[in-house]
């Protein structure tokens, strides 16, 4: 930008680790386009520490409404616990600010549709943090898959097998439907599941299982699913917080090649491996094109913010919003419904009036919050 006066004004809501780390780093990387002007947190010590870390004139507020009224930011970045996201996203939209919100954007499809209704026809819009879409390796893989360069997608695997101990769940809002929205399906595996959908497109059917095998929590600590895509491709999905050997992995077997991503919390180009089918091994130029993206941009909040700021300048819907973001949340809801009912769930099935539209647990007596479950018996 030609002058600081033309920079967009940004505010952060919540000043915990993800905001102090990833979001602040992203804002600093785009300092020529956006200026951090305010931060909101109910914890005064945490807010003061964040403002000191930011190292610039950042106004501090204990209340989001006051901040929105006084600062009038163009962009609000939300990093609070999930149960607060819906209310905060809607408040920011109504104040005229665009929103970038940590996952999950909200706790149900009903909440998502409430947020979407608060968006303007031409903005402001809400985008969900799904940073794994935005590394150059993911962009390259999606282009190859969409163009047919790897042949027809046939079989896929999506794995988020992480480890969380009992101390992790001592944080009061974790492991509870009303505050976290679910277990590893919503809070951990949603990143890889979103990337799988980003690469393969619309899903049509889900069959699933979920378990509470170790942790004394309301939600699951492991889930598995079988998925059919509109293309005909079929996939397996595993989400776990019980796995000492932690890994995040996506593998897609196409008719001409296998593409595989193996990482943990973020990826570079080298984390993507392309294996040609036997009939394609001798096609040297084609195989080289698979393996050599032009740039090596790691997946990150910084990469996602690049696209969001470009969309704001152009006045268009940003990536990670609208249909794409809802599709991922609907997939999570379908996984829970399939797991808890034992029945296949098809895309578009969960609509107002379906208990899984209002809550991921669907008021199922074995899975709903204990008070709710007792009332439903």
Automatic annotation (TrEMBL):
<feature type="domain" description="Gfo/Idh/MocA-like oxidoreductase N-terminal">
    <location>
        <begin position="8"/>
        <end position="119"/>
    </location>
</feature>
<dbReference type="InterPro" id="IPR000683">
    <property type="entry name" value="Gfo/Idh/MocA-like_OxRdtase_N"/>
</dbReference>
<dbReference type="InterPro" id="IPR036291">
    <property type="entry name" value="NAD(P)-bd_dom_sf"/>
</dbReference>
<protein>
    <submittedName>
        <fullName>Gfo/Idh/MocA family oxidoreductase</fullName>
    </submittedName>
</protein>
<feature type="domain" description="GFO/IDH/MocA-like oxidoreductase">
    <location>
        <begin position="140"/>
        <end position="259"/>
    </location>
</feature>
<dbReference type="Pfam" id="PF22725">
    <property type="entry name" value="GFO_IDH_MocA_C3"/>
</dbReference>
<dbReference type="InterPro" id="IPR055170">
    <property type="entry name" value="GFO_IDH_MocA-like_dom"/>
</dbReference>
<dbReference type="InterPro" id="IPR052515">
    <property type="entry name" value="Gfo/Idh/MocA_Oxidoreductase"/>
</dbReference>
<dbReference type="Pfam" id="PF01408">
    <property type="entry name" value="GFO_IDH_MocA"/>
</dbReference>
């Amino acid at each position: 930008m030609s002058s600081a006066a033309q920079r967009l004004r940004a505010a952060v809501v919540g000043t915990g680790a993800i905001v102090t780390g990833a979001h602040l780093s992203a804002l600093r990387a785009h300092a020529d386009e956006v200026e951090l002007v305010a931060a909101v947190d109910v914890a005064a010590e945490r807010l003061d520490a964040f403002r000191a870390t930011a190292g610039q004139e950042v106004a501090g507020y204990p209340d989001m409404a006051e901040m929105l009224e006084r600062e009038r930011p163009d962009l609000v970045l939300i990093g609070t616990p999930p149960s607060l996201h819906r209310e905060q996203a809607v408040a920011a939209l109504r104040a005229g600010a665009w929103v970038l919100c940590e996952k999950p954007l909200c706790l149900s499809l009903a909440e998502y549709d409430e947020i979407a209704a608060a968006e303007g026809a031409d903005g402001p819009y809400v985008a969900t943090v799904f940073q794994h879409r935005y590394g150059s390796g993911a962009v390259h893989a999606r282009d190859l898959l969409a163009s047919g360069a790897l042949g027809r997608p046939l079989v896929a695997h999506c794995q988020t097998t992480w480890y969380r101990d009992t101390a992790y769940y001592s944080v009061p809002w974790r492991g509870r439907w009303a505050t976290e929205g679910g277990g590893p399906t919503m809070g951990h595996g949603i990143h890889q599941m979103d990337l799988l959908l980003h690469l393969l497109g619309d899903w049509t059917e889900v069959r699933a299982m979920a378990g509470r095998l170790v942790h004394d929590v309301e939600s699951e600590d492991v889930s598995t699913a079988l998925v059919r895509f509109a293309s005909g491709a079929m996939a397996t999905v595993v989400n776990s917080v019980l796995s000492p050997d932690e890994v995040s992995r996506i593998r897609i077997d196409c008719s001409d090649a296998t593409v595989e991503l193996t990482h943990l919390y973020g990826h570079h180009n080298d984390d993507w491996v392309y294996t040609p089918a036997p009939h394609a091994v001798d096609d040297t130029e084609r195989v080289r094109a698979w393996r050599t993206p032009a740039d090596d941009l790691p997946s990150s909040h910084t990469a996602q913010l690049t696209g969001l700021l470009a969309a704001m300048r152009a006045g268009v819907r940003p990536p990670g919003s609208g249909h794409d973001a809802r599709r991922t949340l609907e997939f999570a809801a379908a996984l829970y419904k399939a797991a808890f009912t034992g029945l296949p769930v098809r895309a578009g099935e969960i609509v107002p009036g379906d208990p899984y539209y209002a809550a991921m647990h669907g008021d199922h007596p074995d899975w709903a919050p204990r008070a709710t479950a007792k009332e439903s018996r």
